[in-house]
């Protein structure tokens, strides 16, 4: 079950916006602002180094809030103690509610790489950021290539990280349908 939850988290959390996600612009770009490509490189570097707080700091505040809201039912379930412990490192509903959105994201990411094989895969992957495509004035999609070896087999994968403007510059959006992630975790809880 842990591997299934880890895969769901990695797919859902990093970094393409689900349909319908809205982001409010609060600042205009400045001369010194990082480019979307630079933010993506920092995000991937933090992920490869298992720097979960660093990754969380590069996520858009609205994305972190949305993720927490979608998972609130899971974290607040009366029988959710074991799942809260596994995903967040806390056991009670009160402890889960006390965590910041950033701490929830960092805890979820930490859990996804507890498997040594996943952690090694992230550490050894080679990443090449290729460029970005604008979607309006406030959203961009950065395209990158990730090369890795799985069980001795070289794999190259193209991926996209979506970002939106925030008060501190470009920040990452959630990837995939996070409601599917929440449903997967709920199903895992019910099977316990």
Overall mean confidence score, pLDDT: 80
Give the domain tally.
Answer: 1
Low-confidence parts lasting 5 or more residues at pLDDT below 50?
1-12, 15-30
What CATH first level would be assigned? Answer: Alpha Beta
Q: Per CATH, which architecture?
A: Roll
Strand order of the largest sheet: 1-2-3-4
Q: How many angstroms does the end-to-end distance come to? A: 9 Å
Largest sheet: 4 strands, antiparallel
Q: What count of helical segments does DSSP give? A: 9
List keywords for this structure.
Nuclear Transport Factor 2, Chain: A; 21% strand; 192 residues; four-stranded antiparallel sheet; 9 helices
Account of the protein in words:
It is built from 9 helices and 4 strands, in the order ααααααααββββα. The protein is an alpha+beta fold. It has a single domain, classed as Nuclear Transport Factor 2, Chain: A, CATH 3.10.450.50.
